[in-house]
């Protein structure tokens, strides 16, 4: 198709929305595995998804590179030919990797870049989706597959006067491609989640002054990033099959097992040694040291206090250390950021920490940020304020199912899905890493591969059986939600005001959006559904 006939109607077997990790792998499986004609739409001008948009200083992955990448499910050759340079890869390297994947598997020719899906309507008579794009294009397809990621619609708080600011302001999730030079500038950073914690140390090294507005302190864990040695790379490559097999079965899709012991079953000094060892290793291992950290408040408090101790050790001013030490939620009930020198940043002369809970931001003014305590004059504002996670982007696609029911209406009180992948009244719609699937509560790539493989196997089955439509039944959906809610309620996770429960977006229905029953358990459930002829789905 040439640029002149971009708006012409087109019919394909499948439309995929998004060209990040999930969209790329889905396209490969549909086109090269199943021979289905596929059109991918991507709002960005290149592949990459999250890694295309999030170009802020310090952006890097919090999962280790060797397992935050495609497994042998995509290609064993790719594993051998790609070498990561750092233990936790930075954004530019992950973007290069995804660009390489797109070229290596000749994926670009079926991706329409710079094109946003603005509507998708199910036609029940025709048994087709009609997908509309912002360039006036229209495509019909039997299957609609969303690969839009979980954190792709930015949350820009509606502060009074926000647009009156005279300086430059940027949300981390839509960072300028040419970068931002903060040299000599006074910078306000709003937000101290995983993004703010990565960005603040970098900006502090450049700017004249950084004022950090922190509403909720987090339990940040040592990142422990370092270069990958050739020996490590070889060892990993030799062991890849076993590593991937493990990631598919563990609770969080990491090749680490959760220790089979409770926190209070060991003496205090031994527990401390266990925490110290995990801390020294860096990354999320600390969360796997005991099996009840997310289940038992007293167990959790041992890890929380260990982390508060680390903050007190590293921050010179005891008052600032107390401001940085969380006490209003249990450890890991908000996603803990990984940090590399974050706490030491607050020992710098050019960094000021503002407690935006005690003195909330009242307004953005032409000169800066105003709180109850006064006005902070700055040249730049960075909004590290997160995302309307999991449902935000799905809603923006304008999806309507049978009888014109909008997804936004059906989910007005919260997501209603079967396995987090399908929803009744929306036949032939598959949501990769959708709400109520493990998604953000896991190593994303493992969960993405599981969803893509499951959908591809399902479509193969439909083709072999001559089935035109697949739709989750109401009963299966109700049962999945009941199970999801039961599993959620058994954990401490609903206690915190996190984006995992939708608390960061005013008016968003509160429920735990990801499924926390575990990656391995979830995979077993999905496999079982398939083995029983797609139990819980109506196939017609
Ligand atoms: O967003 P967040 P993020 N006034 O929502 C604050 C993933 N990630 O972009 O906690 C004042 O966590 C808000 O305060 P509070 C990772 O899964 C992955 O940092 O709501 N402050 C919070 O401090 C992560 O969890 C990697 O009280 C306001 C911050 O803004 C997810 O992305 C790297 C405010 C938002 O924190 C999101 O992280 C980076 C207001 N009105 C991120 N509104 C990887 O490694 C919000 N805040 C792959």
UniProtKB/TrEMBL annotation:
Alphabetical list of Pfam families matching this protein: FMO-like
EC number: 1.14.13.-
Entries under Gene3D superfamilies matching the protein: FAD/NAD(P)-binding domain
InterPro entries listed in its UniProt record: FAD-binding_Monooxygenases, FAD/NAD-bd_sf, Flavin_mOase-like
Cofactor annotation: FAD
Gene Ontology terms, MF aspect: oxidoreductase activity
Keyword tags: FAD, Flavoprotein, Monooxygenase, NADP, Oxidoreductase
Family: Belongs to the FAD-binding monooxygenase family.
Protein name in the entry: NAD(P)/FAD-dependent oxidoreductase
Organism name: Actinomycetospora flava
